[in-house]
């Protein structure tokens, strides 16, 4: 098999698994359900991933990498704005599937020490991308300089987690754009009028 074919198969598995984990949770995403969601056999799935936990971690890491790419180019607030986009505007994945996976990661972080240890190695990518973006913005004179970049990074990550929780509870999202405008305004450097 060519590398392109292997990459396409891996993407097919991740996309199907994302929907399956989002719909059924980690425990409910049985091998049979994963087979149905990916339209592949158990052998094909586990040829690419050692076990279900490795598949879930790869999926969560894939999502974190995608988010880190958006953060590097446009900032963490853009990731939040993307969560609010209408599903028909999405080209890569449905918000509910991403959200479901994100919530499952949060749940497992609370309840599974082994998962927490494995995830800690991967989760730094998003934090690092956010921190680097903020440093570049500060150097360009666009970011407030009276608050440490680490504090601003933590602030933005907490807002993201709050938005994820808000959406997970099924609360309306149509009034969140002004909130995200306020978040952006909070981290911007305020220029004094002359």
From TrEMBL:
It holds the Pfam family TetR_N. The keyword DNA-binding applies. The keyword DNA-binding applies. Residues 30-49 bind DNA. Keywords: DNA-binding. InterPro entries: DNA-bd_HTH_TetR-type_CS, Homeodomain-like_sf, HTH-type_TetR-like_transc_reg, HTH_TetR, Tet_transcr_reg_TetR-rel_C_sf. Residues 7-67 form the HTH tetR-type domain. This is TetR family transcriptional regulator. The lineage of its organism: Bacteria, Bacillati, Actinomycetota, Actinomycetes, Pseudonocardiales.
């Amino acid at each position: 098999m060519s590398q392109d074919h292997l990459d396409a198969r891996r993407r097919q598995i991740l996309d199907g698994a994302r929907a399956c984990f989002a719909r059924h949770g980690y425990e409910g995403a049985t091998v049979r359900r994963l087979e149905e969601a990916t339209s592949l056999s158990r052998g094909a799935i586990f040829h690419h991933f050692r076990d279900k936990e490795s598949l879930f971690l790869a999926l969560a890491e894939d999502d974190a990498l995608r988010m880190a790419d958006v953060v590097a180019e446009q900032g963490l607030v853009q990731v939040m704005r993307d969560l609010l986009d209408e599903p028909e505007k999405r080209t890569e994945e449905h918000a509910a599937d991403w959200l479901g996976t994100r919530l499952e990661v949060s749940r497992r972080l609370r309840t599974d020490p082994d998962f927490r240890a494995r995830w800690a190695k991967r989760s730094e990518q998003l934090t690092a991308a956010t921190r680097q973006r903020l440093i570049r913005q500060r150097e360009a004179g666009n970011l407030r300089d009276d608050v440490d970049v680490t504090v601003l990074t933590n602030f933005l990550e907490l807002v993201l987690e709050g938005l994820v929780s808000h959406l997970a509870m099924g609360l309306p999202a149509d009034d969140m754009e002004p909130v995200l405008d306020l978040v952006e305004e909070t981290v911007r450097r305020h220029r004094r009028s002359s």
